[in-house]
Structure formats: structure tokens, C-alpha cells
């Protein structure tokens, strides 16, 4: 049993879902009552592997995770970054075999929720099922933006776009404000996400610092030129569909 | 096959100024750049800025020195010769 002072692990999910939809008190309670198995994971630990057939989904409670694909010689493409409240393998509820891996980037707290429990929840509360479907569709919208970034934006624009995206996603779940947020992963991770070399990422970040667009100290990134960064990235937040402020 | 390195400066706006054009039998096959102090643990090492034909690589490697870069480029070119 959870004590009154201990936060419910499902708060992270409610905050995330609350940033894109509204819930009734009954729906909220049903989410809070979901049975979960909470675990602390090391940085760079696989949560679910490409080719596996998971029987549970992972809800990220703290830390950062990513989805990725590995080529035979070890080259890695990061497909998406994930923050608390995300369920990066939600698709496994409908598509049995994983076509990519999910791993932590930092130390992370993860709640595993069985497919059975999630199916039961969505059967009893179809509205929650619709919101979970919406999450998958929003992921697809983000993939489309990343595709534009890798195919057509130059390195400066692509990094600017990603920084704007990460800030707004973190802000929506109450994990960033005043244009500051924790960016605890490496420049190699950024490069693997954007199809850029570590050298190129480093060079662009130096250039952004030189133009007073960002500061980056001890893994805390501050966007000091938000409007200019938006302009450079041609950033249009429509694809994030953050129609609600963070709940709770 | 003979590699010839020609030092040059490129105005990319970055602090990585020291570069070499690499020619193989007169054909441009690569551009190497020496990394400045901003690259911290990789400072003063050499990065493949651009590679052409078989020297192109989506994950450009970083070399300790020009000899290592030269060997890598030669290996790449040998694979297709």
C-alpha cells in the first residue's frame, strides 16, 4: 500500500495525459489504481529489446529514455527521447513484436504495467483508451517532424528545433520553466538522434552559445534566445498538440 | 595510390580552423579538420569533415593524428581498388 505522503506512481502518467486531454475523477482514480511494478534502472539499460514480445508496458516515472535501432556494425539511430509520463512502448499493446528497442539514457524510475491491466482499463474506460491512442498518434506526428529535420533541416536548424521541442514537452508536464531544463544526455546521443556527428553537434552548440541563444552548464540548458531559436528552427508547436496545461 | 595532404583554412564560422584537403592520385577524397579546445577530450584530434566516394561515412570517425587518418583513408580506398 502507498502511504498518504508517497506520491502515486501514476501521477506522472496523469500529468502527461492531462497535458493532452481532460479526465473525469472516476477515470483518474482508475488510472491511479492500476497495479504497477516500480523499478530503478541504471543509465543506458535496455528496458525492452528489438524483436521481443513484451507482456507489459513501461511508464517512465523519472529520468530520460529513448527508442533506438541498431545497425549490424553498432551504428545507432535514436528514434525518440522520452520524459516522465511517457509510455515509450505503448504500441506493444497492439503490435506484439517490438521493431525497435527502448533504453534508459539516465538513471530512471520505471513503472511496468501489464498489458492485461491496461486492456482492462481501456475496456472499462474507453475515453482513456482514446487518449492512449492519441499518445501514439502524437508520437507519429513527432516522428514526422524528426523526419523533416533529418532530411531537410541543416544541423543548426535541426538542433534548434529539437531543443524547442524538448523544452515544450518538459514544460507541459511541469518539468521545465523559464526556458531552463535538465539535458543530462551526451552530445553523441543528440547526434545519434539527429543523424549528426558528435563533432558537428558540438560545433553547433558552440555557435549557439556564441550567438547568445543558449547556455549549457552542468547539463542544465537555458534557452536565452527563445524567439530567435523558434525563428531559426521554423518551429510550429502544432504537432505537439499541447492543448492543456499540466494537470495537478 | 599516393595520398597528398594540402593544408587549408575553411571559413565555416567554427573554431575548428586547421584543415587538410586529402588527394589520392590527384583526386579530392576527403577533408580533415583538427578539433579545437572546445571539443575537450577530443581537442587536437582530427575529424573526417567530408569524405567522397568510398571515403564517405555517415558516422565520421575521429583520429588521434594525421597518420591514423591517412591509414584509414587508404584502407577505405584499397577496398575498392
State the gist of this model.
The complex is a heterodimer of chains A (248) and B (81). Chain A has 248 residues and is of the alpha+beta class.
Describe this structure in words.
The complex is a heterodimer of chains A (248) and B (81). Chain A contains eight helices and ten strands. Chain A is an alpha+beta fold and 248 residues long. Chain A folds into two domains: 132 residues, Jelly Rolls (Sandwich); 88 residues, Arc Repressor Mutant, subunit A, CATH 1.10.10.10. The longest helix of chain A has 27 residues. Chain B is of the alpha+beta class and 81 residues long. Chain B has one domain. Helices cover 16% and strands 37% of the residues of chain B. Chain B has a five-stranded antiparallel β-sheet with strand order 1-2-3-4-5. In chain B, strand 2 and strand 3 form a beta hairpin. Chain B is globular. The chains are: A alpha+beta (248), B alpha+beta (81).
Query: Under the CATH scheme, which architecture of the largest domain in chain A would be assigned?
Result: Sandwich
Report the principal-axis shape of chain B: globular
Pick out the low-confidence regions of chain B: none
Q: Name the CATH superfamily classification of the largest domain in chain A.
A: Jelly Rolls
Rounded to the nearest angstrom, the radius of gyration of chain A is 18 Å
Q: Estimate the strand proportion of chain A.
A: 15-25%
Tally of individual domains of chain B: 1
Strand tally of chain B is 5
Task: Indicate the low-confidence ranges of chain A by residue numbers.
Answer: none
Using the coordinates shown, work out and report the CATH topology of the largest domain in chain A. Answer: Jelly Rolls
Instruction: Please state how the strands of the largest beta sheet of chain A are arranged side by side.
Output: 2-6-4-5
Termini separation of chain A (Å)?
Answer: 22 Å
Mean pLDDT of chain A: 92
Secondary-structure map with pairings?
The complex is a heterodimer of chains A (248) and B (81).
Chain A lengths: L10 H8 L6 H8 L4 E5 L4 E3 L7 E7 L2 E6 L5 E7 L18 E4 L3 E7 H10 L1 H27 L2 H18 L7 E3 L4 H8 L3 H13 L3 E4 L2 E4 L2 H8 L15
Helix pairs in contact in A: 3-4, 5-8, 6-7
Chain B lengths: L2 E7 L8 E7 L2 E8 L11 E6 L10 E2 L2 H13 L3
Antiparallel strand pairs in B: 1-2, 2-3, 3-4, 4-5
Amino acid at each position: 500500500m502507498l502511504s498518504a505522503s508517497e506520491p502515486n506512481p501514476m501521477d506522472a502518467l496523469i500529468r502527461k495525459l492531462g497535458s493532452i486531454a481532460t479526465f473525469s475523477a472516476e477515470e483518474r482514480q482508475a488510472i491511479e489504481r492500476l497495479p504497477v511494478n516500480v523499478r530503478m534502472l541504471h543509465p543506458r539499460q535496455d528496458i525492452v529489446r528489438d524483436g521481443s514480445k513484451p507482456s507489459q508496458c513501461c511508464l517512465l516515472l523519472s529520468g530520460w529514455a529513448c527508442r533506438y535501432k541498431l545497425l549490424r556494425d553498432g551504428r545507432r539511430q535514436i528514434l525518440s527521447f522520452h520524459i516522465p509520463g511517457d509510455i515509450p512502448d505503448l504500441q506493444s499493446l497492439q503490435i506484439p513484436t517490438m521493431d525497435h528497442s527502448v533504453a534508459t539514457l539516465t538513471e530512471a524510475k520505471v513503472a511496468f504495467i501489464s498489458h492485461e491491466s491496461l486492456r482492462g482499463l481501456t475496456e472499462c474506460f474507453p475515453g482513456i483508451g482514446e487518449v492512449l491512442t492519441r499518445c501514439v498518434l502524437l508520437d507519429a506526428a513527432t516522428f514526422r517532424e524528426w523526419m523533416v529535420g533529418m532530411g531537410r533541416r541543416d544541423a543548426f536548424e535541426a538542433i534548434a528545433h529539437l531543443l524547442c521541442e524538448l523544452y515544450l514537452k518538459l514544460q507541459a508536464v511541469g518539468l521545465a520553466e523559464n526556458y531552463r531544463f535538465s539535458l543530462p544526455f551526451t552530445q553523441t546521443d543528440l547526434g545519434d538522434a539527429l543523424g549528426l556527428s558528435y563533432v558537428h553537434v558540438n560545433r553547433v552548440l558552440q555557435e549557439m552559445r556564441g550567438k547568445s541563444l543558449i547556455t549549457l552548464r552542468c547539463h542544465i540548458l537555458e534557452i536565452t534566445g527563445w524567439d530567435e531559436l523558434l525563428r531559426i528552427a521554423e518551429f510550429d508547436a502544432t504537432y505537439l498538440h499541447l492543448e492543456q496545461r499540466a494537470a495537478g | 595510390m599516393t595520398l597528398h595532404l594540402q593544408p587549408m583554412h575553411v571559413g565555416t564560422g567554427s573554431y575548428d580552423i586547421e584543415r587538410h584537403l586529402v588527394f589520392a592520385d590527384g583526386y579530392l577524397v576527403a577533408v580533415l579538420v583538427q578539433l579545437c579546445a572546445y571539443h575537450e577530450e577530443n581537442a587536437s584530434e582530427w575529424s573526417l569533415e567530408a569524405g567522397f566516394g568510398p571515403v564517405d561515412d555517415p558516422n565520421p570517425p575521429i583520429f588521434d593524428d594525421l597518420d591514423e587518418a591517412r591509414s584509414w583513408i587508404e584502407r577505405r580506398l584499397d577496398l575498392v581498388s
